[in-house]
Design brief:
Blueprint: H1 2-58, H2 65-80, H3 84-105, H4 109-112, H5 115-162, H6 167-177, H7 182-192, E1 215-222, E2 225-233, H8 248-254, E3 261-265, E4 269-273
Parallel strand pairs: 1-4
Antiparallel strand pairs: 1-2, 3-4
Length: about 270
């Protein structure tokens, strides 16, 4: 009889744990969707600016038809992309065509001095910076979502493989599950003979020093696309981005390109504009 009760408790805990993890996945999925919606807003703003930019450049360099067509086609490709991944890939192509357009502008001093052109260029640069930052946030959220799925499967497989839980593990698990399933966990707590009700217990403690990392992994983004990841000291501040140009991996990724701007988000992203 006791063995049967233990088995039922373990099964019930597994069911609750799966429900909790599923709810966590739903929340993460919503965060993924929200992160993408923010990127999409900035992408649309960028797309809205491009026609005016093209028309302004045409006024000074009307014979650069090939460049104008390439920008227009790339813009249309972004608008027609069916998925976030496809849209970001198309946006990378669009970024390349815009660089060609700005390269054309370099040959026309009057165009560079045009107030409308300068304003459009500044707005596009600002929008691109926002997109770069939001992309990293989106990628981080997707990674957390995928990690949560892997953790759920790993957790369930671990319990099934072992076929049992220690009394200490069971106690800690019931404490953690109690906020989302108070009635069931209180019943299990009493059946297991853990003493006074859960609501009178202290939350499981942890060692904070174990959570402090000396180094963190960040993404290296060049020309609007993540090219690699590097480990950097966790203590680096937002003004330390220049130091990372001396990193061997970063040097290889940049190559002979001329660095025009650096955007460093501590603990998350090094964005290099060439």
């Amino acid at each position: 009889m006791i063995a049967l009760i233990v088995v039922l408790i373990v099964i019930a805990i597994l069911v609750i744990a799966v429900i909790v993890l599923y709810n966590n996945l739903v929340q993460l999925r919503n965060r993924v969707d929200n992160a993408w919606s923010q990127i999409d807003v900035q992408l649309q703003r960028r797309l809205d600016l491009i026609p005016n930019l093209v028309e302004t450049v045409k006024g000074y360099a009307s014979h650069e038809r090939g460049t104008f067509e390439a920008v227009t086609q790339a813009r249309n490709a972004v608008m027609a992309a069916p998925t976030p991944e496809a849209k970001m890939e198309a946006d990378n192509v669009l970024t390349g065509t815009l660089k060609s357009l700005f390269a054309v502008a370099e040959a026309y001093p009057d165009l560079k001095a045009n107030t409308n052109f300068q304003q459009l260029q500044a707005e596009l640069t600002n929008t691109e910076d926002k997109i770069s930052y939001m992309r990293q946030s989106y990628n981080d959220t997707v990674m957390k979502y995928n990690t949560a799925i892997a953790a759920m499967m790993s957790y369930v497989n671990e319990i099934y493989t072992r076929g049992s839980l220690t009394r200490g593990e069971l106690r800690a698990l019931l404490l953690c599950l109690n906020p989302v399933s108070p009635h069931v966990t209180e019943e299990m707590w009493e059946i297991c003979g853990f003493g006074e009700p859960i609501y009178k217990q202290s939350w499981p403690t942890y060692d904070e020093t174990k959570l402090v990392a000396d180094e963190v992994e960040i993404a290296v983004q060049i020309k609007g696309k993540v090219r690699g990841r590097i480990m950097v000291p966790a203590t680096l501040g937002k003004d330390d981005g220049e130091k990372l140009l001396e990193n061997e991996t970063v040097k290889k990724l940049v190559g002979d390109a001329q660095v025009k701007k650096i955007i460093f988000v501590p603990g998350r992203l090094l964005n290099i504009v060439c």
